[in-house]
Design a protein that fits this description.
It is built from six helices and 15 strands. The protein is of the alpha/beta class. It is elongated and about 60 Å long.
Length: 234
């Protein structure tokens, strides 16, 4: 994973780099670059150069928000994370599609939880789920999977652009370690938390407008996982 940290506080920058290295299970596969200003970063930046960019909002001259705008004009997919000492700045991140922020004064366990969530997002967007349909082998990007459904002894994978039918068991899909941001709302469904729009009394409403049944037995677990997902994505 290629990570850039942009912060004009050298001590904090070094501490965060160490924290990232300690939090990632395969630290030897990390490539972390450090920059002391937005200007220095942009002078070296190119599209698809990094997977994650962590920006201090309150830098001198070119601040983090201005830097993020220039990043987004060139790269729509890189994960942007803001560092801030003031919570009110975090809301401005939505304007540049940065849905994550980290408070500089927070304790280390909170940093670790947020970093793990960022790592999970990275793996979700870079990992694929292989399936064998009737005549073809497909590798579906996990970030494109909306939900799985059991239908007439088949598994139907609903992706953002197409559906795929294949033989399998929902229990096997539930145990797949790649599907860490999925939840089971009903015995016949396994859904991607990233595509949930809201929860109703007995239904899960997806952003695709699909309506998934929500069993009474699983409602509490689904609600907890959905709220946790939303919180960690901040």
């Amino acid at each position: 994973m290629r990570i850039a940290i942009v912060d004009d506080e050298q001590d904090f920058l070094s501490n965060l780099k160490n924290m990232i290295s300690k939090s990632y299970p395969e630290a030897d596969k990390l490539n972390i670059s450090e920059f002391g200003s937005g200007e220095k970063f942009l002078n070296n930046f190119k599209k698809n150069m990094y997977d994650v960019i962590i920006l201090d909002i309150e830098m001198k001259e070119l601040n983090g928000l201005e830097t993020a705008e220039k990043i987004r004009s060139a790269d729509s997919f890189v994960i942007i994370v803001f560092l801030t000492s003031h919570l009110e700045f975090a809301l401005q991140g939505y304007e540049v599609n940065a849905f994550r922020y980290m408070l500089k004064s927070q304790p280390e366990p909170m940093y670790r939880r947020q970093l793990n969530s960022i790592f999970n997002e990275y793996h979700q967007t870079h990992m694929t789920f292989p399936i064998q349909t009737k005549n073809t082998m497909h590798n579906i990007s996990i970030s494109d999977i909306v939900f799985f459904e059991v239908f007439k002894r088949m598994i139907v994978l609903h992706a953002t652009d197409e559906t795929y039918e294949f033989y399998g068991k929902l229990s096997e899909i539930e145990n797949d370690e790649r599907l860490i941001n999925f939840v089971k709302p009903h015995k016949s469904y396994y859904v991607n938390l990233a595509f949930i729009d809201n929860l109703e009394h007995d239904s899960v409403i997806m952003k695709t407008r699909d309506k998934i049944p929500l069993s009474r037995k699983l409602k509490q677990s689904v609600t907890y996982k959905f709220l946790t997902f939303l919180t960690e994505g901040c």
